[in-house]
Design goal:
The chain is mainly α and 263 residues long. The chain contains 10 helices and 2 strands; from the N terminus they run ααααααααααββ.
């Protein structure tokens, strides 16, 4: 079934992230040593190429004027999905599941489990990655003006913001705790995949919207995560030590976390 194919592509992004965290194996000889850099380069290129292809396919499929075959395949898939899951209603659960991996990460930090980055570092990475993700998604929504499956008058379908946020937070959870607690990576990506699936089953998005959204979220998280060491060097050392992460609450937004500066 085509739905299985889409879910397989979504889950495929999780394996790309796992490759980035694969523990280094001992080098047996000089031959093995000489092949490791090439393997690392191929893995890095693959982690960029696959999501980029998914985004490109989504852009090409957004209009029959651009690519008739892809656009028709997208519409056929949606019709088949709606036929099989007629009346599906997520009851707004997908509005919350996109944030679950992030909540899991902070839950681990709050209970004393140390991750790859400090709480302040993790938060800085999330904030920058979130802005990058939102910027790319909003620009693509304006550029493509893709009609929603359920409402042709609403031109904000491509890409799926819910899915991009879900995969962004799942990827950050994976990078923060995946090496120590693989089950957290599995759980985070499972929730992200379920979020994307609910967007399609609920007829809120085309499958191409979800695949592109997942790719954008993944790339945003990976880009900022791996650039973080270089970014921290731009901060004055004294300022970096004075950054604090504190609980916050507002009547409109509820409980959360805020970044502060210790004077």
């Amino acid at each position: 079934m085509r739905l299985k194919f889409v879910l397989t592509l979504l889950l495929g992004l999780t394996t790309l992230g796992a490759q980035a965290q694969a523990p280094a194996l001992p080098v047996a000889d000089s031959v093995a040593h000489s092949t490791r850099p090439a393997h690392g380069t191929r893995a890095a290129l693959l982690r960029v190429a696959v999501p980029s292809v998914l985004i490109g396919v989504g852009v090409l499929a957004h209009s029959p004027k651009v690519n008739q075959t892809l656009c028709q395949a997208k519409q056929d898939f949606q019709a088949e999905t709606q036929e099989m899951f007629r009346g599906f209603n997520a009851y707004g659960i997908d509005d919350y599941t996109r944030h679950v991996p992030l909540a899991m990460a902070y839950g681990m930090m709050a209970t004393g489990h140390r991750g790859e980055r400090t709480a302040v570092g993790f938060t800085l990475i999330y904030l920058v990655a979130h802005e990058l993700d939102e910027g790319v998604v909003s620009h693509l929504k304006r550029y493509t003006a893709e009609p929603r499956p359920y409402n042709p008058q609403e031109l904000t379908s491509f890409p799926s913001s819910h899915t991009s946020q879900a995969f962004l937070t799942a990827t950050l959870l994976h990078e923060q705790y995946g090496r120590q607690y693989p089950w957290l990576s599995v759980s985070g990506y499972a929730v992200a995949t379920a979020t994307g699936a609910m967007r399609v089953l609920g007829n809120k998005h085309w499958a191409t919207d979800v695949l592109a959204g997942a790719a954008i979220g993944f790339l945003s998280a990976e880009t900022v995560w791996h650039a973080y060491p270089a970014l921290t060097k731009l901060l004055p050392q004294k300022l970096a030590h004075k950054l604090l992460l504190v609980p916050s609450y507002s009547p409109a937004g509820g409980a959360g976390l805020a970044m502060g500066l210790q004077l």
